[in-house]
Each structure stands twice: as C-alpha cells, then as structure tokens.
Amino acid sequence: MSHHESSESKPKKKVQVATGDRAILPEGAKTIPVYIMGKKYEVPETLTIMKAMEYAGFKFLRGAGCRGGICGACPTVYRKPGDYKLHFGLACQTVVEPNMYLAQIPFYPANRAAYKIEDLEPTPETIYALYPELFRCVACNNCTKACPMGVDVLGYISALKQGDIAKAAELSFDCIQCGMCASRCMGELPQYHIAQLARRMYGKYIMPKAEHLAKRVKEIESGKYDDLLKQLQTMSHEELEKRYKEREREPDMAPNGTWMPASDPYL
Q: In this predicted model, what pLDDT tens digit does every residue of 143-186 receive, in sequence order?
C-alpha cells in the first residue's frame, strides 16, 4: 500500500461546527475557520472575536459587560496565517479573520504596590519607591506595540523616569488596565499599575481644582436645591418628560461664557 493510500484510509479529523445562538447574523454571511484556544471552529466572518466565541459555544461569565472597548477584560492575542508577528486586540472590537489563531488573557498577574493615596507625597520619588522596577525599562517599545488602545506606553514610562507625573497621566489617560503591556515587557514592569498611580496622584494633588464645581457642591450640601428636587420627585412620568423636552439648551456653537438661560432656578 502506498503512502498516499494509507493516508487516505485514515479517518478525517472532525471539525467542531459552532452552534451558539447569541449572534444575529447578516443574511448570506459566510463562515470561516478560526482556532480558539487551539481548537478549530467554523464561525461567521462578520463577527467580533467575542461574538464568534459565543457563537462557538463559549460563555463569558465575566469581562463582557461593556462590549465597547472600555472595561479592558477581553484582551486577545492572535496570529494570522503566514505572519510571524503576534497581534493584540480587544475581543469586543476585533473582527475574526480566516484561520486566525487566538487566545484570551483576561487577567495578567503583574506586581501591584499597596498604598493609600491619602498618605502619599505627589512626587516622582514616591513612584520610584513603590515601583523601583520602573528603571528596568530598556525602551524596547514592546509595551506600546501590544497596547490594543494605541496608548504610548513607552512614552509615559519615559516621562515618569524623567519625573513628569502630569505628562504620564495625560499619555496614559486611555489605558484600560488590560495588562497586555506587562505581558510583553522584558523588564517585567507593571506599566499599567504604574500609570494608574500617576493618574491618581495627578488627579488628587497636581491637577488644578475646578472652583465652580466646589462651589456647586457646597450649595447642594447647604440644601439650596432641596425644594426643586422634591418638586421633581412629585411629578408624573409625563410631566418629567415634558419638562425635559422643553428645557433650555445651550446652542452647540455658543462661545464659552456667552450663554445664560432665561430661567435660572438651578443657578
């Protein structure tokens, strides 16, 4: 028996067909093969990774609340056919591609310092003391390449090494704490935890305070608006809807500080 004949006589490996019911498919959608955690599935080509996994029978017990790229709990690592590079994305946003190999990393166990923000001095030295590994960074930029949100991770780490907390807070503003940066770091930095500390310090101690907001909070605490709130609470649904639709609205293109409502019971 020839080699060709023997290979033909072997039973073919059965491919599991996706059978989940959570995806509403466009009419005429085609299916494509994808490999989820190493196993082959046929899923509609139009779905995001998250919906494709649900279509394949996976159930998300956590990390699927927002489905809009904000919570950071569905980071996914994948490879494309013929491409040696690792790619990173959020399962709720990334659309499946034929023969994509993917795996999810819903949590990455990076080092996280314990502290009380009220007890900290807002200085770079505080960050260095809590995260001395900051200086193990070798500027390879793998962290930035791994970020599914396009955050300049190396940029904010470099800013902190130079003592610029405000710049680090600004550059890391879109961080969703998914941990993909730390998963690729040869220096083993917990970049996203370091950035979170920088933003907390900036917000509590460094950022200019909104005086008008503090004034309004004091007015609320003094009871200035208690009667208005009681009035709203006694209104019917129809009355509230009418009040909402007829409310005064600032024109979209009004220059700052030039518009005031004709009626000002809330001011």
A: 999 999 999 999 999 999 999 999 999 999 999 999 999 999 99
Measured at the alpha carbon of residue 192, what is the angle toward residues 104 and 149, in degrees to the nearest 5?
Answer: 60
Rounded distance between C-alpha atoms, residue 25 and residue 47, angstroms: 8
Q: Are strands 31-36 and 100-104 parallel, antiparallel or unpaired?
A: parallel
The answer to whether residues 33 and 80 belong to one domain is: yes
Q: Could you tell me if 138 and 191 are in contact, meaning their C-beta atoms sit under 8 angstroms apart?
A: no
**Backbone angles phi and psi of 103, in degrees to 5:** -145, 150
Max CA separation in the chain (angstroms): 94
* Domain contains 220: yes
Residue whose tokens read 């591609």:
97
The pLDDT tens digits for 48-81 are 999 999 999 998 877 667 777 678 888 999 999 9
Burial of 90 (0-12, 13-18, 19+ CB in 10 A): buried
112 part of a folded domain: no
Q: How many CA atoms lie within 13 A of 138 on its CB side?
A: 7
Using DSSP's 3-state secondary structure scheme, residue 63 falls into coil
CA distance 156 to 144: 10
> Into how many domains does the chain fold?
3
> What's the CATH code of the domain at 81?
3.10.20.440
Range of the domain at 24: 13-104
Q: In 10 A of CB 37, how many CB atoms?
A: 11
Residue 267 has pLDDT above 70, yes or no: no
Assign 102 to helix, strand or coil.
strand
Q: Which of 4, 20, 80 is nearest to 52 (CA)?
A: 20
Q: Is residue 94 part of a domain?
A: yes
